[in-house]
Write a structure and sequence with these properties.
The complex is a heterodimer. Chain A is an alpha/beta fold. Chain A has 17 helices and 14 strands. In chain A, strands 4-3-5-6-7-8 form a six-stranded parallel beta sheet, covered by helices on one side. In chain A, α6 (168-181) packs across α7 (190-206). By secondary structure, chain B is an alpha+beta fold. In chain B, 54% of the residues lie in helices and 18% in strands. Chain B contains eleven helices and two strands; from the N terminus they run βααααααβααααα. Chain B has a two-stranded antiparallel ribbon with strand order 1-2. The longest helix of chain B is centred in the middle third of the chain and has 18 residues, at 103-120. The two termini of chain B are 31 Å apart. Classes of the chains: A alpha/beta, B alpha+beta. Chain A binds chain B through residues 110-113, 115-116, 119-120, 266, 269-270, 272, 274, 278-281, 427, 432, 436-440, 469-470, 473-474, 477-478, 486-487, 490-491, 493-494, 499, 501-505, and chain B through 22-23, 25-30, 32, 34, 51, 63-67, 69-70, 77, 81, 130-132, 134, 136, 139-146, 161-163, 165-166.
Chain lengths: 505, 230
């Protein structure tokens, strides 16, 4: 495998900052398996065969049917052109870093905040918690629990994580439920209901329910509520999905179960349904110490830009998201083209999902066609282990964009706010919760609006800096894992009757 | 000749009773009310629990403590950003929560402002907003801190060390607890240290043109000035 020549010196320098060594390579997508070669390109990220620089392609031409992009002639220095043709993308999944300790957050949130969380935890010391979800790896819920549960245990609140089991028929049903709860069509039959309930019952019989608090995540294990006993424990249903427009039949089936819980939690007010049990708002959170969000040395940011051919002397507009039409990457390109008439800038569209998702590959092709021969549009189809690179790309950007047409909470927006960047985003899903228009970012509703706001930010750096500053404070106040942990501790105390709202502990 | 250990020329003035710094943590509950028009908002404000009025006026100051610009409560922000009713937004933003020692009085003021505006702007009442307004409620839990002040120096030290939520709790939230147009810091300075003028200076610090960090700095400026005079 080809490794970039100057990597050793560079990584020696970076080792001091505890960034793990990553292998990068340029791979020929036509090479036989296991035979990537240097100076050949990986997958369909950027054009496979660049146009000769002395043979410019008319600006109006789109990508040829093969999916290859050709760049028109440009003044861009040759090394940028070369890198854009052959970006260095890491080919090895690094080992996961050890989760941080609670005390590691002190430089981020301050000692007083940390002390308050410790105080809340001290009151709960010895109380036991069981968290249940449907998967141990992959997906946002598992990612959250992987971070949250070690912190709870470190604070001496013994917390156990159980995962329900089921056959393929169960997971087909729960996948169908998931889509139906997002508003999709679904044919709910008695047999489907029986499959759902029988696996929930099997899991109920398999598990012990001896804890003080039970937190059941999402619809899949919602039927475990049958284990609720009148004299033992409080039950919480944590719904991570948007229930604003559910399939009526599926929701009518689940609702009687949900209403047996002592409390429910949603990620945004718009995601809820009318229920006769208390509904709490827990925003999704990011971990400021994760690979995706931790501080990076400037040298590493420069190195990633160099790997991808990004010119840091000119403004960089970036959207990080998988290649999905709901993220409107083509709309972002249209907005960039409007901006480019006034400001010499670059656009980075970086994400994944085009390798393992057939629709993602189609969207990537559409994006490449829309990008045409503009060498300043850099399209990166990154592997799932690119958290550090995404972190660096966000930090290298002048403006971050999330021009979604439909969105869940939009954690890429949170990541941008945390990095003190001005964010321009579509006013959909949970984004308006994060972006207070013109205070913590800018909300847009169209390509033209997106273009105008980007232009304004690029030409008013003081305003952009103020948005970034406010955005970071907003993220710190509301969307960090430590805030999330505090919310859990408060809810546990309230449900167990240990804290009375509006009374001193 | 040996001399006795020099005593400080000034001794700290001891408070009659110590000041215990607390802090406040809050949990957001999603309410049942939702408004898609200003008329619906008016109805929701009439009927929602007091904890919702508290959340969207007092508590929002704590949640957005880092912002100086913009509208100062959630109702005015929504009238501006989602309903495009700048006139109403300005009137709602002019509400200074420090003038209210009860939520009932604050609710009445909100109702009066919106009702008056809608009577003069009939079409504004039923025009559908770009985003709905979801009424929330706040469960506030008070958390003690280890910081205690028995004199002005310890008070300044505590102010420097506590979280911003503690400043909010003692300086803003206190009004509803005390049922006074005052704050915990000023009450302590006046009653336990006989420093009425200092207390008054603190109480006049503007919470709307400052971030809570700025409020903390202003309070400290007043206290440090007093300490330098001692």
């Amino acid at each position: 495998m080809a490794i970039h020549g100057n990597k050793r010196n560079y990584w020696e320098q970076l080792t001091k900052d505890k960034i793990p060594e990553r292998k990068t390579a340029v791979v020929d997508k036509n090479a036989k398996a296991g035979e990537p070669r240097q100076d050949q390109q990986e997958s369909a990220t950027i054009q496979d065969k660049p146009a000769k620089q002395d043979a410019p392609v008319p600006a109006t031409s789109s990508a040829p049917p093969s999916g290859e992009r050709r760049f028109r002639q440009t003044d861009l220095p040759a090394h940028f052109i070369e890198r854009r043709k052959r970006p260095r993308i890491s080919t090895e999944q690094p080992p996961p870093p050890a989760p941080p300790c609670f005390g590691d957050y002190e430089p981020i949130i301050g000692k007083p905040e940390l002390d308050e969380i410790r105080f809340l935890a001290r009151h709960l010391r010895g109380k036991t918690v069981k968290m249940v979800n449907s998967t141990a790896v992959g997906g946002g819920v598992a990612e959250i629990l992987n971070r949250l549960i070690p912190l709870m245990n470190e604070l001496e609140i013994p917390t156990r994580w159980d995962v329900i089991t089921g056959g393929n028929d169960f997971y087909e049903v729960t996948k169908g439920f998931h889509n139906a709860l997002h508003g999709g069509e679904y044919n709910l039959t008695q047999q489907i209901k029986d499959i759902f309930m029988s696996y929930n019952e099997q899991n109920r019989q398999r598990m012990e329910f001896a804890e003080d608090l039970f937190v059941i995540h999402d619809p899949q294990p919602a039927g475990l509520i049958r284990a609720k006993s009148p004299n033992r424990g409080k039950w919480i249903w944590r719904c991570h999905i948007d229930l604003s427009n559910p399939h009526p039949g599926v929701w009518d089936f689940l609702k009687p179960m949900v209403e047996q819980y002592d409390a429910t939690i949603f990620s945004a007010p718009a995601f809820t349904r009318q229920l006769n049990v208390p509904q709490y708002l827990f925003y999704p959170s990011i971990d400021p110490l994760s690979e995706k969000n931790k501080d990076l040395p400037e040298e590493y940011v420069n190195k990633v830009c160099d790997d991808f051919g990004i010119d840091r002397s000119r403004p960089v507009i970036t959207q990080i998201s998988r290649f999905d039409r709901l993220k409107d990457p083509v709309g972002v390109i249209e907005a960039y083209k409007l901006v480019k008439k006034y400001v010499d800038c670059q656009l980075v569209l970086a994400g994944g999902g085009a390798t393992d998702d057939p629709e993602g590959a189609v969207v990537l092709q559409e994006v490449m066609e829309a990008a045409g021969d503009d060498p300043d549009i850099i399209i990166l189809n990154l592997p799932p282990w690119s958290a550090l690179e995404i972190n660096a790309l966000q930090r290298a950007s002048t403006v971050l964009v999330q021009k979604s047409l439909k969105e869940g909470f939009g954690l890429t927006v949170t990541e941008g706010l945390w990095k003190e960047k001005p964010v321009v985003a579509g006013a959909v899903g949970g984004i308006p919760t994060q972006i207070i228009h013109k205070l913590t970012g800018v909300l847009v509703h169209s390509v033209e609006g997106c273009a105008y706001q980007i232009r304004y930010l690029l030409t008013h750096p003081e305003f952009a800096a103020q948005l970034g500053k406010n955005g970071k404070e907003h993220a710190k106040e509301n969307f960090l894992i430590t805030v999330n942990l505090k919310r859990w501790l408060l809810l546990f105390q309230i449900l167990l009757g240990m804290a009375r709202p509006n009374a001193t502990l | 000749m040996a001399t006795a250990t020099q005593l400080p020329t000034t001794r700290p003035r001891w408070a009659r009773s110590p000041f215990y710094f607390n802090s406040a943590s809050h949990l957001l509950r999603i309410g049942r009310e939702k408004a898609t028009t200003l008329q619906e908002l008016l109805e929701a404000i009439r009927t929602c629990p007091e904890s919702s009025i508290f959340q969207h006026t007092f508590q929002t100051l704590a949640e957005h403590h880092f912002i100086r610009e913009g509208f100062s409560n959630d109702f005015s922000q929504w009238a501006f950003a989602s309903c495009n009713e700048v006139g109403l937004a300005e009137r709602l933003a002019a509400i200074d929560v420090r003038e209210f020692t009860s939520i009932a009085a604050l609710r009445e003021r909100l109702i009066h402002i919106i009702d008056t505006y809608l009577q003069k702007n009939l079409r504004a009442a039923t025009r559908v907003a770009m985003e709905p307004f979801y009424l929330m409620a706040s469960d506030l839990v008070v958390v003690p801190t280890p910081y205690v002040a028995r004199n002005l120096e310890e008070f300044a030290d505590g102010l420097r060390k506590v979280s911003i939520h503690s400043i909010y709790y003692h300086f803003i939230d206190a009004r509803l607890r005390l049922k006074l147009n005052n704050n915990d810091f000023s009450v302590w300075l006046e009653h336990d240290l006989d420093m009425a003028q200092t207390a008054d200076r603190l109480n006049r610090i503007d919470i709307y043109t400052n971030t809570l960090g700025g409020v903390r700095r202003n309070i400290l400026n007043v206290i440090e000035t007093e300490l330098s005079r001692a």
